[in-house]
Amino acid sequence: MSVSPPPKTGRAEQALISRALEIAGRLANEAADVITATAGNDTPPVRPESPFDWVTDVGRTLERHTRRVLAEHFPGIPVYGEEFDAATVGVGEAELRWVVDPVDGTANYVAGVPWCAYSLAMLDERGPVVGVVADPYRAQIYAAARDRGMRANGTPVRLSDSRAPRASIVCTEFTKYGPWHGMDRFIANAAADHVGVRVLGSPALAITQVALGQAVAAVLPSYGEWDVAGALALAVESGANVLDNRGRPAALPHDGLLVAAPGTTDTAFGWWRQAAAEGGAATR
What we know:
Strand order of the largest sheet: 1-2-3-4-5-6-7
CATH superfamily of the largest domain: Fructose-1,6-Bisphosphatase, subunit A, domain 1
Helix content: 25-40%
Number of strands: 12
Radius of gyration: 18 Å
Largest sheet: 7 strands, mixed
Mean pLDDT: 88
Shape: globular
Oligomer: single chain
């Protein structure tokens, strides 16, 4: 079954959103099975361009499958992905589009470290409409649709408005080529407030930890659209705040982002911006 071509306004309609959520969930479940069955056994790249950004045969296979299924069910809506497209898809490339990262956290996946994800999102002119993140090693599928909330294996998730950052966890990630400018200062700033910083190797799961209430914030100065779009849908629908590198609310920032729980946003943004001032441009 396929749906009608997207509306020319570039805004997703409710029937389309429902169908997108269904198909995305199905793809995420399939991908989770493949990832858990092959982790630690896939062939690592011979000469990776970056130690933080690998491409594998399983990643390519999963992305091809995703593209085929989406083309069948959503003809006319383009699909962009980690393995076959340019480094970053910019807003406006297509008013309504899919973005997929078949294995987010590839280095972990190749090594058999149980921390990677499959991420898929539909976006329109306003940002993420539908987002699904598969967390294979915890047997969880996280899904969200605009104005419909977030669910973890079908259970609704909503953040508390009152959690303070002290004695909690904040996530960040390396850039494609290593630590970002000011990263050491950011870690020190958080530690001074009795908050631990974790670099776990998956941008999608870093943001998802905030959406789940397991981390109070995530700072990502560098990423591709497909790395973060699915998880940003989760975060927004769970009640987290999303800011760009100037502290402005944004549905899908493209030059650095902060995702934070209510009650933590100002503090976490302060750590980041102070780090940028003292350690260099945080968005390089």
